[in-house]
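ZP: hey, is the LQZAQKY5 complex queued? I don't see it on the tracker
AM: it wasn't, my bad. submitting now with these inputs:
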Amino acid sequence: MVTVNEAKQKIIANVTALSALTLEVRDALGHVLASDILAPMSLPSFRQSSMDGYAIIDTDILEKDTILKISGESKAGQTTTQTLIPGNAMRIFTGAPVPDGATAVVMQENTSSANGTICIHEFPVTAGKNVRNIGQQIQRGAIALEKGTFLSPGSIGFLQGMNIWEASVHRKPKIGLLVTGDELLHKGDSIVHGKIFESNSAMLAAALQKEGIADLEIKYADDNLESTIKGLSELAENNDVVLASGGISVGDYDFVGKAVEALGAQTIFYKVRQKPGKPLLFAKREDKFFFALPGNPASSLVCYYEYVLPALRIMSGRKDPFLTTLKMPAKLAYSFQGERDEFLKGLVVGGEVIPLDGQESFALRSFAIANAVIYLPVEQNVVKEGDLVEVHLLPL
Ligand SMILES: Nc1nc2c(c(=O)[nH]1)N[C@H]1C(S)=C(S)[C@@H](COP(=O)(O)OP(=O)(O)OC[C@H]3O[C@@H](n4cnc5c(N)ncnc54)[C@H](O)[C@@H]3O)O[C@H]1N2
Ligand code: MOO
């Protein structure tokens, strides 16, 4: 048995980023850059006005209400180079090229025009005002985004704005899932006493989809060693990570641990001092990883968020693999007995976290409305209302 922290350290120590592939930038959302991207152009690439108004020369404005002659216009998209002559102002619009010679733009609300002239009510007008300079955002040749950057919608827009259409990113892991349990019913089956509807595969597939992993290869095994070995071995052929659901405890019909061993995988840890999810197993065979998740649905999902997801994120190149963690006051008191750290289903509302009713490992109703997991180490087994607790935000 390892502690929660030891289990996490073992994941960090054993899992590494996968190889790189080239993707269209617009398809790379949620991927991590495998190399630095240098700016192929400066942004802005020409001096741009940031306001609708008048381009002027700051040294022409010697007092409030200076009057200048209006000469010409610069609108967004204009490609010809224009020059502003001293004593003149040029009509200009947001995003338009600032004419050569102009040093600032006065917004039109601070002016009044009459008979081809413009009265500037602003004084002084500092050079550079309302002008976006060449390379103000990024200089050509500079590192635009570093290796290891997680590509967000903002990153994608930024890259396309520099005429970058492809990026080298880490491949995301391919995942297989072996569902075990002779008690499981599937869509279309009739309700039978003693059997339950299988829910872990849909739940895990949804969690993976949220992480941008759409393809999950699912197989089912009967509760015997041969079927479990066959399922795990077939899944390991095509996938980087094999998950198993159920059959990892100590019962006579729990075969996953034995099957992982029979496949020649090395167990990195088995059993974590936590509730739920104690019988979690993590094993490795060459570059393939195995996670045996406890069958209890809430145990399975806690283990996914706390261990599997970080491993998948490390493989995808992420440097920040764990759920976003913060400290928050508990809205309700909570206490527990026992020797294991606890992960509670929680609901964050208005800067506080509510430990939800129904914390048993078979109960998913609390998870269905949770947006966070509360982590209580065994030393913090009595929480009073208002006490600070560690909250892990779920990626929903
Ligand atoms: N003698 C002991 N018994 C148990 C221990 C122990 O230490 N000693 N640990 C308990 C803990 S803690 C957990 S967690 C469970 C884990 O058991 P398994 O991983 O072997 O899971 P199963 O027995 O196969 O199933 C547990 C539970 O979950 C339901 N289940 C399984 N698969 C699914 C699925 N795909 N969809 C929905 N529900 C599923 C299953 O019917 C069981 O109710 O072991 C304890 N026992
Ligand atoms: O570790 Mo088990 O998940 O408590 O029921």
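AM: back. The mean pLDDT is 97.
ZP: great, adding it to the tracker
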